[in-house]
Design goal:
Strand order of the largest sheet: 1-2-8
Shape: globular
CATH superfamily: Cytochrome P450
Mean pLDDT: 85
Helix content: 40-55%
Cofactor: heme
Distance between the termini: 110 Å
Keywords: Heme, Iron, Metal-binding, Monooxygenase, Oxidoreductase
GO molecular function: heme binding; iron ion binding; monooxygenase activity; oxidoreductase activity, acting on paired donors, with incorporation or reduction of molecular oxygen
Protein name: Cytochrome P450 E-class, group I
Family: Belongs to the cytochrome P450 family.
Number of helices: 23
Number of strands: 10
Strand content: 5-15%
Length: about 550
């Protein structure tokens, strides 16, 4: 008997052969399912993309964030709905935009988990919440705080902070040095976000050294690039989060920026909570309408608003609230400088546009906007159509997230012509393709504010505009972005004693959004927006 068993064991194939055989059977089964049996198998697209996620990895990583351009070419070859990986579809027809990224009133709309793996370094915030119901719960108090009425209520504070950039440029003019505008836009954005978030606001714009905030911006760019890797290798995120912050700071200083910013936010959180917890007795009541316009006091800080909201206690823990504050902080100090560099560059590179903008501001504000005026400057800016057009065009060419994150409608199919996309299927659209549709925006890569002026503006332009998202997960601070950008442009180009900015060794490719990451990025090695400053007197 033993001899027989021994013979059988000797006759059995070696273990490596068995493992390889099992692996072959598994891969064959997976390939068969993905190519022929999957519900997505009937949608067109390259077979390699349907077979493996390595197809997308190649364009995301090896080609450095160029998958969005490949997707555009695939649409030209295969049609308006294509399969871009084994699990996800992509659409190009703008009529589907509002259907895919719907408000979530009639149906449950969830964010596709894979498309946000790169954000897992900041967990527990509303932006990372996949569940429709939990996201709606977490977003409500934030939507109340950032609604248009409350942003308008904060406009005097926004104007005061925006004006700091003018005084800072006056000081830099005396130094005769080249100014990196990304540093300046970063510090003024940090001033704004701390002003509406915490009791102890900062005034980084007036500090003598801009390098620290600038280094934070550079680090956030690195994090945005690394996020593409983390989407494909999500397990790395858990490894990074497990490393003690002090060790991570030594091993990877740029990646450790999240931890540094978290500690900064946590310190402000502890300070604000200690000051308010014993005195705050009110609770914010939020209606079922997510975009409620409940008017808050201009002095209300975001941290107090969240702590006093009617969120359940487990949603108001220090970790949860700090995650929300950190997300908003990072989004502000990264995206505002990006869009302001794009917008400012195009204004400076086009003398006719700069002159039209200045002429409009002189007509509205007079020769010196610093002189006493019966109507506050920010109220007058509501009539500045060309200024608003410059902001809108800058946002269009900023693009936001080039690839876009997919959504899953859990309750209803998406019907498009002869196609039926089953409930729960991840479907995404590209902000790049929507914002550069030549049928909607002629000469789409040109900066033309005139296209947004009354008389030229067409409904299709708003339908396609995707830089700030759409639906139930659109940018929370959409109104704040518009207001802040208008104020910053007026601070730089408005009448009175003002800076005269001239581009210094800066090309469009130094600021243009061409790389897909956590958000849109400029090419590697881009020098950013650099200017020289000459101070001009109104006299």
């Amino acid at each position: 008997m033993l001899e027989q068993l021994s013979g059988l064991m000797e006759a059995a194939p070696p273990l490596p052969v068995v493992v390889l055989a099992c692996l072959g059977v598994y891969l064959s089964g997976v390939s068969l399912y993905r190519l022929y049996l999957s519900p997505l198998s009937r949608f067109p697209g390259p077979k390699l993309a349907a077979l493996t996620g390595w197809y997308e990895f190649y364009y995301d990583i090896i080609k450095d964030g160029q998958f969005y351009l490949k997707v555009q070419k695939l649409h030209e070859k295969y049609g308006p709905i294509i399969r871009i990986n084994p699990w996800e579809l992509h659409a190009s027809d703008p009529v589907l935009f509002s259907q895919i990224y719907s408000s979530g009133v009639k149906h449950r709309i969830e964010k596709y988990a894979w498309s946000q793996q790169g954000l897992r370094l900041i967990d527990n915030s509303h932006i990372l919440t996949e569940s429709h119901e939990l996201h709606k719960l977490r977003r409500k108090p934030l939507a109340t705080f950032f609604c248009s009425r409350n942003t308008d209520n904060m406009e005097p504070i926004i104007w005061q902070i925006s004006r700091r950039i003018r005084s800072r440029l006056q000081k830099l003019n005396r130094s005769g040095s080249v100014v990196k505008m990304e540093d300046l836009f970063t510090v003024v954005s940090a001033d704004l976000v701390t002003a509406f978030s915490f009791d102890d606001a900062v005034d980084l714009t007036e500090t003598d050294e801009l390098q620290l905030p600038g280094s934070i911006y550079s680090a956030l760019q690195t994090v945005a690039r690394v996020s593409a890797w983390l989407n494909h290798f999500s397990w790395v995120t858990g490894l990074i989060n497990a490393i003690p912050p002090t060790l991570l700071l030594r091993l990877a200083p740029t990646v450790a920026t999240n931890n540094r910013l978290y500690l900064l936010v946590k310190k402000q959180f502890d300070s604000s909570r200690a000051a308010r917890i014993s005195t705050s007795k009110t609770t914010v009541t939020i209606s079922d309408d997510e975009l409620t316009d409940e008017l808050l006091s201009p002095d209300t800080k975001l941290i107090a608003h969240l702590l006093n909201s009617n969120l359940p206690p487990h949603e108001r823990t220090p970790e949860r609230v700090c995650a929300e504050l950190l997300t908003i902080f990072m989004a502000t100090i990264f995206n505002i400088p990006r869009v302001m560099m794009v917008t400012t560059y195009h204004i400076l590179a086009n003398p006719d546009i700069k002159e039209k903008l200045r002429s409009e501001l002189v007509d509205l504000l007079g020769p010196d906007m610093d002189s006493k005026q019966e109507t506050p400057v920010w109220i007058k800016l509501n009539k500045a159509e060309y200024l608003k057009a410059c902001v809108k065009e800058g946002l269009r060419l900023f693009f936001g997230a080039l690839r876009g994150s997919a959504r899953r409608n859990l309750d209803a199919p998406i019907v498009y012509k002869d196609w039926v996309i089953l409930p729960g299927t991840p479907v995404g659209m590209s902000a790049w393709m929507l914002n550069t549709d030549p049928e909607v925006y002629p000469d789409p890569l040109a900066f033309r504010p005139e296209r947004w002026l009354p008389g030229n503006h067409k409904p299709e332009m708003d339908r396609n505009f995707a830089s700030l998202g759409r639906g139930s997960r659109t940018c929370l601070g959409i109104h704040l972005v518009y207001v802040f950008m208008r104020h910053l442009l007026v601070a730089m180009f408005g009448p009175g004693d003002r800076p005269e900015l001239t581009l210094y060794e800066t090309e469009e490719s130094d600021v243009a959004t061409t790389v897909s990451g956590l958000s849109g990025l400029a090419k590697r090695g881009a020098r950013g927006l650099r200017v020289v400053v000459e101070w001009m007197s109104a006299c």
